[in-house]
Queue: 3 jobs
Job 1
Amino acid sequence: MEVFARFSPLIGGGAGVTTWFPIHVEIMLLLTTDNLYGKSSSKAKTSQKIMNTAILHRIDFVPQNPESTDTILQLLSLQDVPGKIRHRILAVGVEPHELDTCLTLISMDRLHSLLETKVSNMTTSIVVPLGKALFHQNFKGKMTDISSIQGIIGSVEEKNGSKLNLIRNNCYSFALNILSNLNVTYSMYPINQH
């Protein structure tokens, strides 16, 4: 499983620098055919078209009402606001019988777009490859089984709570806690993008 940090503008952002400046962070976990089935598995060997199979987990921590004036004022005055953990699961090339109700099908172009750094006069997103992580050795689920990732999210939520605060509990502290719960082998070299 490949691990990325994606920096992007704030949700809604209002007018000005927050619609362009990438100050929000999310963790993205990319599982491809080799990660999902293992390089030597019969399923990976029998279908080369599965190389275009991928599942992308996008995990972040945001205010429940990010565009609310009250939320923005509370955050700017360093107060807590209700937060929510978003865990979006995007899939490419997954067979219909493997679909979980929480998956959203996307195209391979959309997947590549999410994994690219983009800079324009309208918006900016910066994607940083962090390395690779493995599921626990006892993970025996099928490719759409997300119990290990949900367990990590649950432990971070239990530890930090669901109140968002710009100083104590924000998207950065959340991302660091997610990473600390993964067995990540950090890479100084670019990860081979699929």
Job 2
Amino acid sequence: NAEYMGKCLADEMLDGPESTSGYLFIEGVFYSRVNERSIDYTEPIFAWLAEGDRMQADEFRGLARASAEDTRWDELSLRLGKPYTLMHQGNCGHSIVVTDAYLHSPVRDKPTEDWYPMVVFETRVRVRRCRICTTTPATWVTTNDVHAPCDPCFWCSRCYGEMHIDRATGKRLYSGYRLHPYLREP
């Protein structure tokens, strides 16, 4: 079917790998996962399009929805080399590019459809280390932090806690900076 989920760190950090919400946007069609455990991410898009006859505008005319579970890859109209959008976990977006297509051959190809679509490239994930201890992978990033050695500054949980959190109360020692979880970088 027209579902594909490669490995994504957002699955571990956000709703979790059991979340089935998401869609593929291919040639004007949103192929959504629609089941009892999923949120239809296209609902607000189509609600917005319905306001004020936006669907009649040239750039939106012809947009459609279909079930990802009920659509097979060989039923899609694809253009080789064109990037398509995969959205999941609320706002985690990926580009999917189909680079090759050919007829199945039992002699040459994998014996089961579960192998397809076949991932041939995934962006390497860059993980920054803590700027303070320089050994542990960062889990936090601060901006506008007057006590940080740089801006933005990447911190492991231990170093961030020692520099920013009062051990007795568990509250921040000072304010004025912004704190964000650090996930990864392509």
Job 3
Amino acid sequence: MSCPSLVHKCLHCLPSHHHSYLVIKVANAGALVTKIQDKVSTKSSSSDDGHIFLKMDAGMTDVLRPSLYGAIHPITILPGSGKSEDIGTDVESVVVVGHCCESGDLMTPKPGEPEALEERPLRTAELGDIAVMDGSGAYCAGMSTKNYNSFPESPEVLVTADGEVHLIRKRQDPKQIYENECDVPDGVF
């Protein structure tokens, strides 16, 4: 089974409004699979200054290692159509960021420098394309910044050696984020 086909098989096992999930195996073997939500260029027409930014529908809430200590994860861009024949050959240098809108929500830092931007050559992406961030196995799930900025935990999918897809953790219901909060007594503020 081709990688785009497998990714789309995984996406189809989730409710339609869930765009990112973790494929969990063991250690470094998993991947974060997410959609490209936005693409912004800060380059001017008169110079090469600036960057092209790809914003994913996931980020430091799911894979903290790049933000924490500048870890480098391989990223592959696949067509949103799920068709192998739609994989283009054009490449562009981009900075990949997450959905938290934080300076630290950087998926392509310089190695060992979590706050330094580094462009990475990736296949040219369009909105709705799929980004697969490899090396995001069980350790990344355990390190996730649970409920940061009120983002629910991502669902997890297990893919067997036969290519069967199993949902092993549902996306957290947003109500669960707040269920342990208590009302503040009158007069405290």
